[in-house]
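Reopening: Glucose-6-phosphatase still failing for me.
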Amino acid sequence: MHSLADSLHLWGITIIQYIQLIFKDYSGIMLFLSYIGDPKFAFTFYFPVTYFLHKSVGKRVLWVTVISEWLNAVAKWLLHGERPYWWVHESGVDSSESLLQVQQYEITCETGPGSPSGHAMITGAVWYIMISDFLYYKKVTSLSTKVLCWSCYFLVMSAIAVSRLFIATHFPHQVVAGILSGIVLGKIFNSLSTTSLKFSHHAAVCIGLTVLTAVTYLLVRYLGSDPMWSVAKAVKWCARREWVHLDTSVFYSLIRDVSSLLGLGIAVWLLPEHEKNSFSLIVRCLHIASALAVTSLSENLKPGRENLHLFYFLGFVKHVVTVCLVVVVVPMMSNIVTRV
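Support: Ran it again with your exact input. Result attached.
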């Protein structure tokens, strides 16, 4: 007799095996869908693009990315969710019940706990902000246009959810929980005004997130659990050691959140906002291209993992500097180029 959790996981493995069978010839597409749903994609793509299309929306996108990823990381610590690629090895369920091995891919072996799905939760919140703000600022009144936009939202989220199941890094209930959480957070942050937020606001939230992170960490330790337990499982059961990436750990996510928000606060302090959104299309495209080049370069700068403390510290510095470069330096350099 299986427990409710085991029954849920067994059902999830069945769904994963079925999806892997159906889409086995489309693994490249599945990996791409999972890539664009990666939380770091919100930092490296959605934020810079939306920021230079509309500064207020861009900052709101970064805020909802930070808060939703932070909440997701804390929830993962507390919920202790399994991941399919290691659960099949450690469940203890009799393999005669069609519990077969699941196929692993190069991005399968994420090192954080599995519930809720960060890809679904964070991307769900970000896309909710982008679509709802598009409808608001464009003053869309057509019902058919609204239906089309929200249909695209659910199509994108469904595709990302399927991709997460395909690579066996989440169970179905984890991606559903992530999508629903993302929608709720998107609705909450959709009413956030970013025009009046100063450095002090950003710094205060960063301090608050850091303190709450420390409290949660100590609480998890007090309850007798190792907050880094999932990293050991990833290392043990990943098909290839090089597929295990520390920048997918809960701790790294928390560092990225605080450092990115602090970077935005510093940028606001260095470059007081007038919320100017009247740049020409050519200038906006130049800003976006330059910002994406900066975030792409930053993403490719990966500190060595030999010293974990140095790894996390350099990650913190990298994200602070990257946001400052995007918000402050990129517009300055682009404006200089356009004047030449």
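The chain has a mean pLDDT of 91. If you still see a failure, please send the error message rather than a screenshot.
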